[in-house]
Amino acid sequence: MFPIKAIHTPTVKASVILTILIVAMISISIVNFGSVPHVPILFAILLLFGYGLWKKLTYKELERGLVEGASAGMSAVFLFFFIGILVSSWMMSGTIPTIIYAGLQLITPAFFYAIVFVVTAIIGLAVGSSLTTVATIGVAFISMAHVLELSLPLAAGAIVSGAFFGDKMSPLSDTTNLASSIVGVDLFEHIRNMGWTTIPAFFISLILFGVLSPDVSGGDFDTVGTFSSALLGTNLIHWYTLVPVAVLIILTFVKVPAILTLSVSSLTAIVVAYFHTFYSVSDVMTILFSGYEGATGVQAVDELLSKGKGMEGMMFTISLVLLALSMGGMLFTLGIVQCLLEKIESLLRKVSSVILTSALTAIGINVLIGEQYLSILLTGQAFQSSYERVGLASKNLSRVMEDAGTVINPLVPWSVAGIFITQALDVPTIAYLPFAFFCLLSPVLTVLFGYAGKTLTRI
Predict the structure, then answer these.
(1) What pLDDT is stored for residue 48 in this prediction?
(2) What is the C-alpha separation between 156 and 176, in angstroms, rounded?
(3) What is the spatial distance between Cα 432 and Cα 160, in angstroms, rounded to a whole number?
(4) Which of 37, 68, 267, 301 yields a CA-CA distance of 20 to 30 A from 104?
(5) String of b and e for 99-122 (b: at least 16 CB within 10 Å)?
(6) Where do the structural domains in the chain lie, given as residue ranges?
(7) CA-based angle 40:45:48, to the nearest 5?
(8) What is the DSSP string of 176-216?
(9) CA 156, CA 116: separation in Å to the nearest integer?
C-alpha cells in the first residue's frame, strides 16, 4: 500500500514531534540562514537515523530505507540528464533564442500587462525555468513599467504568472519532470492532463490582465529593441531552428516515451546547429555537458542564453531530489508518514477530500518550508496510495502537486522563489501576490474540479 514497508510503529506524539523538528530545521535553515536545502535535509536524515537507532533498529534496516527512498527517484535522475542535454542543444541550434525573439516582437504599448503575461509565458515554456525568466526578461519588463509609470505590483504579478505558467507546462522544467517521475506518470501525459486546469487559469488570467491594462500611447521600449538586436546578432535566429520543437510535439502526440522523445529532439537540434554555425565534436560534447554560453555583449541576454543547463547544470536538482527522496524513504521506513496518514484516514474516503487534503499539504509545505521541490516530493510520496484507494490514476496526483505546489512557492515571502523574485524585481512578494492571478487560480481550480468530479481520470 505504501511505497516502502515500515519496520517500526511510532506513536502519534513521536511522529508529530519528529515532523515538527524536521520542518523547523529545514525552514529555519533556508529562511533565516539562507542555506540551500541540501544541508538541512542531510541533518534531518541524521536525526531520523538517531531516532531509529534509539528505538533499537539496526543500521542496515535504516540504511535500506534510505537506499529504497533514493532508488524511487532514479527514473527522474535519468530524465533530468536528458533535459539538460535538450536545453543545451536547443540553445546551440538557436531554437530557444528564436522563440525568445518571436516573443519579444509581441510587446506593444497596448494591453501591456496582458502582453507581458503572454510573452513571459512563451519564454518560460522555451527556457523551462521560471526564475531565469523573471531574472532576465522579467527585469526588462519591470523597468519598462517603471518608465511608463505603471503599477509595478501589477507588472510583477503578470511576470510571475507568465513565468510560472511556462515553468509548469514546459517539458524542460525541473518541477514538471519531477512531478511526473515521482508518481510514475509519463512526462507528456502529465503535461496534457495539466491542461484541464492550466488552460482555464491561463485565459482567465489573460482576461484580467487585459482588463487592468491602461491605455498607454507610448513609452521607452528601447530595452526590447536592444534585446532583439542582440539576439539577431548571434546568427541563431532562423525559422528552421523550430524544427526540434516540431519533432518534440510530433513524438509527444504519438506517445513516444519521454527519454526517447527528448533524445531525438536533441539530436535534431544538434544537426540544425550546423546549418548556421560550425561546432567541432569537442565543442558539442562540452556544450552538452557544461551548457551553452551566450556572448552577445548584452549582459541580460547573455544571462538568459547562458542558462543552457547541460548535464552539469542539472546536478543541483538531482542531488536535492536524491536527498529528499532518501529522507522520505526514512520517514516511511520508520512508519512516521503512515502514522500521520492513519490519523486522517477517515477524512480520505472521498475523491474530493483526497484532492483537497493533498493540495493543502503541498501548499502547507511551501508555506512552512518554503521549498517547492519538497512540496512536490513529499506530497507525491505521502498521497499516492490514498489516490489509488479512491480509484484515481496517479496523473491526478501529479497535477495537484503542480497546481498547489509549483505555482504557490512564489507567493510565499520567505520561500526560495519569493525571496529571489523580490530581489530581482524589487517588488515585495506581498505587493504582487494579489495580482499573480495564474498562481492563485491554479489550486482553486484543481480543488473545484475535484469536488465537481470533472477532468479526473479513474484507474
Answers:
(1) 93
(2) 23
(3) 9
(4) 267
(5) bbbbbbeebebebbbbbbbbbbbb
(6) 75-313
(7) 125
(8) HHHHHHHTT--HHHHHHHHHHHHHHHHHHHHHHHHHH----
(9) 9
Look at residue 1 in the predicted model and tell me its pLDDT: 40
Please tell me the predicted confidence (pLDDT) of residue 49.
94
β-sheet bridge partners, residue 308: 292
**CA separation for the pair 323, 327 (Å, rounded):** 6
Alpha-carbon distance 410 to 160, whole Å?
8
Phi, psi (5° rounding) for residue 308?
Answer: -70, 95
Contact 49, 63 (CB under 8 A): no
The predicted model scores a pTM of 0.73
Q: Residue 86: its pLDDT value, please? A: 83
d(CA 206, CA 246): 26
The Cα 284–Cα 297 span in angstroms is 22
Contact 410, 160 (CB under 8 A): yes
Query: Amino acid identity, residue 211?
Result: V
What is d(CA 251, CA 258) in angstroms, rounded to the nearest whole number?
9
d(CA 314, CA 321): 11
Provide the pLDDT for residue 200. Answer: 95
What does the DSSP assignment read for 343-362? Answer: HTGGG-SSHHHHHHHHHHHH
DSSP 172: T
DSSP state for residue 221 in the 8-state scheme: -
Residues ≥6 apart with Cβ < 8 Å to 162: 116, 117, 118, 119, 120, 121, 122, 123, 124, 133, 438
On whether the CB atoms of residues 398 and 191 are closer than 8 A, the answer is no
Mean pLDDT by 10 residues, the chain (459 residues): 73 90 85 82 92 92 87 74 84 84 75 90 83 76 75 94 92 86 88 94 95 70 76 87 87 79 90 90 91 77 71 81 82 84 73 89 81 82 84 92 92 80 84 94 94 86
> What are 422's three cell numbers?
523580490
